[in-house]
């Protein structure tokens, strides 16, 4: 299957900024003409090392022109950023390295921030919050940390209520999380481990995958997880040593390696040997109707060695961008999957348009 958006049809716009970007996300738009980007920024040159969430507008006809719409100052550097959409508002959730969680509600019309509710630091986790994820309707958030805690936070109109769903007491560290359904979510952590949780089953994960591949030992960290809405039985993970793999709940004993570590019987095409910071299913590169349900759908990745690419099971990876610095995060526009935005370590963002 050919991947659209090759070098001949790819437009790249690089926008230098004055601050470091920890994470970024497309904000769900009110219409096809309104486009907003959420940036979690960190200013190391300021006296207070200030952090903030900024919402910028842009037009597809002139993507090099970002216009600041609104901003919110964060009490600490942001560790994870997610967005969702309620009936009348856009929801922005951010966790921090100091352990606090913040939920912002922005107006759909102009993306102005109208309200903010928080859970204070040291309430959910001991130390930083590694990752959060928000359900599609914005009603509940999951947070995980290297302290081994898994928390569920319910988002109300004027407050956040939270409960400790699991605590490993430090025996397991969690670094990534992703909702699969209103009752199920996945987490990832050290040793390329993955866990599948079901709120209807208390006491621990419903299923677990440990990275002991080909009867050897596998050390590494899962940095990012994604789950396709139409194939919730398959979890994609990206982590250390350029590793991208799928865990299929129907066949749980071995991973499906797409890139990176290849041991014993596992063979894969490798594009990067450094950390894979983020993975997302790439619907623009998928032709779901012609693909077998046993085949992993195409996945976009970004890496510490500056690669943004699409990887597919059994195929050579398609490199979309190669930068002289790390690409720390990216996001695919759900309304326009041909458009991708990514953050560069050298205080810049890049906007890619695949025609």
From TrEMBL:
Localisation per UniProt entry: Nucleus
Q: What is its main location?
A: nucleus
Where does the signal peptide begin and end?
none
Query: Cellular component per GO?
Result: nuclear pore outer ring
Question: What keywords would UniProt list here?
Answer: Nucleus, Repeat, WD repeat
Q: By what name is this protein known?
A: Nucleoporin Nup43
Q: What is the lineage of its organism?
A: Eukaryota, Viridiplantae, Streptophyta, Embryophyta, Tracheophyta
């Amino acid at each position: 299957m050919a991947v659209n958006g090759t070098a001949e049809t790819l437009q790249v716009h690089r926008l230098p900024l004055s601050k470091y970007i920890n994470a970024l996300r497309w904000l769900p738009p009110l219409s096809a003409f309104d486009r907003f980007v959420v940036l979690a920024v960190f200013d190391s040159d300021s006296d207070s090392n200030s952090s903030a969430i900024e919402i910028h507008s842009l037009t597809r006809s002139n993507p090099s022109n970002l216009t600041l719409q609104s901003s919110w100052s964060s009490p600490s550097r942001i560790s994870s950023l997610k967005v969702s959409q309620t009936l009348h508002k856009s929801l922005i959730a951010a966790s921090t390295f100091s352990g606090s969680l913040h939920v912002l509600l922005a107006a759909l019309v102009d993306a102005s921030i109208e309200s903010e509710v928080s859970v204070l630091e040291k309430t959910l986790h001991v130390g930083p919050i590694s990752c959060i994820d928000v359900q599609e309707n914005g009603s509940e958030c999951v947070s995980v940390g290297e302290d081994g805690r898994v928390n569920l936070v319910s988002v109300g109109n004027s407050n956040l209520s939270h409960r400790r769903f699991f605590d490993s007491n430090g025996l397991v560290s969690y670094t990534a999380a992703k909702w699969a359904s209103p009752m199920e979510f996945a987490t990832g952590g050290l040793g390329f481990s993955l866990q599948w949780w079901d709120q209807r089953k208390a006491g621990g994960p419903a299923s677990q995958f440990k990275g002991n591949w080909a009867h050897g030992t596998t050390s590494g960290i899962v940095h990012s997880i994604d789950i396709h809405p139409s194939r919730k039985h398959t979890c994609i993970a990206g982590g250390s040593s350029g590793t991208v793999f799928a865990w299929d709940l129907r066949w749980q004993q071995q991973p499906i390696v797409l890139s990176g570590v290849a041991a014993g019987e596992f063979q894969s095409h490798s594009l990067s040997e450094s950390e894979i910071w983020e993975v997302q299913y790439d619907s623009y590169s998928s032709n779901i109707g012609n693909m077998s349900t046993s085949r992993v759908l195409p996945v976009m990745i970004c890496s510490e060695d500056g690669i943004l690419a699409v990887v597919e099971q059994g195929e050579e990876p398609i490199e979309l961008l190669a930068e002289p610095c790390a690409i720390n995060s990216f996001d695919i526009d759900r309304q326009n999957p041909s458009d991708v935005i990514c953050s560069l370590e050298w205080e810049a963002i890049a906007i890619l348009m695949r025609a």
